[in-house]
Design a protein that fits this description.
The chain is α+β, with helices and mostly antiparallel strands and 332 residues long. The protein has 7 helices and 18 strands. It binds 2-acetamido-2-deoxy-beta-D-glucopyranose. This is Ig-like domain-containing protein.
């Protein structure tokens, strides 16, 4: 008894101190010590009603298919003895640890589960070569020994991830867009589990769904994931770049993620053709051409003062319409 006390002294924590003073009645003569003892007894009684406490489960949120996964369970038994730790996948028990048995570990056959006994004990269990089917809820149940057999249980979800074998592919219907164009892009990711998440960025800013920015995604477990983007030059994401004189292209990105295990970006530069709508000049040129034929003087008409004036007129008309367009855009 005495030697035990001495040995426990250097590593004495909160618990150790309480133990040693309770076990040393000779030191408790003063009223102060009596008070301290009753406080210790009361707190000891209160604690004994909740000896098993702070049960926490730690399960990897995501683990790659084929890898090992270590699940652990931490608890504080205070002075109580451990009776058993049980692990369940869904409702099925697959591992049990009972310290009072000669061979404390037990494994129960559950489809797909392969327990690595060398790396399993009272607080953790390791699964070898996890498969997709082992995605699900795991539970850890800890029981105190007699007389209370107080039991607690915690659960957590684990996702087994299968990554796509190939890099994502980004296809666009045009590499240069004009002020009235729609740009269509499709991003494709090979089969994965769970299906990948795809988001779109332009110059680093995520494109949200709006009437001029449509995004659709289709995917099924373990199959290819596609995301289609259809975006107009007047959309929120692009409009601003057309108004900036010095912006000749933007960087379109397809961002593919699967939990925190996979993150790939495929990019495509898209040219911006911010020239004023070309529909005005061909019409006017066409009119000019027909007038030329009517005059029967096609060779000289281009050099006459009248047609030059007309060109200046067209030019200023173009500038005015561009300015009006720009103003209209600024007001939008
Ligand atoms: C996709 O995104 C949603 C919402 O952020 C998230 O809950 C889900 O886990 C993600 N799926 C994958 C496979 O990353």
């Amino acid at each position: 008894m005495a030697s035990q006390r001495i040995r426990s002294r250097p590593e004495e924590g909160r618990k150790g101190r309480r133990m040693s003073s309770a076990c040393r009645p000779g030191a408790l003569h003063t009223a102060f010590n009596m008070l301290a003892l009753s406080w210790i007894i009361i707190s000891e009684l209160l604690l004994s009603a909740h000896c098993l406490k702070d049960l926490k489960i730690f399960v990897p949120e995501a683990v790659l298919m084929g890898n090992a996964a270590t699940l652990s369970c931490q608890y504080d038994l205070e002075q109580a003895a451990l009776y058993a730790v049980r692990w369940y996948f869904g409702q099925e028990e697959f591992y049990r640890y009972v310290p009072r048995e000669a061979k404390p570990t037990f494994v129960f056959a559950v489809a797909g589960i392969n327990v690595d006994l060398a790396n399993s004990d009272a607080t953790s269990v390791t699964l070898k070569g996890v498969t997709r089917e082992l995605s699900g809820t795991y539970q850890c149940e800890v029981s105190e020994d007699a007389p209370l057999f107080h039991t607690e249980i915690r659960s957590a979800y684990m996702q087994v991830i299968e990554l796509p074998k190939d890099d994502p592919v980004l296809q666009v219907d045009k590499k240069v867009i004009g002020v009235n164009d729609y740009l269509k892009a499709v991003c494709t990711v090979g089969p994965s589990y769970p299906p990948a998440n795809i988001t779109w960025n332009i110059n680093g800013n995520q494109i949200r769904r709006t009437p001029l920015q449509s995004i659709s995604q289709d995917s099924y477990d373990g199959s290819t994931t596609h995301s289609a983007l259809e975006i107009h030059a007047n959309s929120q994401a692009l409009q601003g770049f057309f108004e900036t004189k010095y912006q000749h292209s933007v960087n379109l990105q397809c961002v593919v993620t699967i939990r925190h295990m996979y993150h790939k970006v495929v990019a495509q530069r898209i040219g911006l053709n911010a020239a004023p709508p070309t529909t005005i000049s061909p019409n006017l040129l066409g009119l000019e051409g027909s007038k030329r034929y009517a005059n029967g003087d096609p060779d000289n008409s281009a050099l006459t003062g009248a047609s030059q004036r007309c060109c200046i007129c067209c030019g200023s008309f173009g500038a005015v319409s561009l300015a009006t367009f720009t103003l209209a855009m600024a007001h939008l």
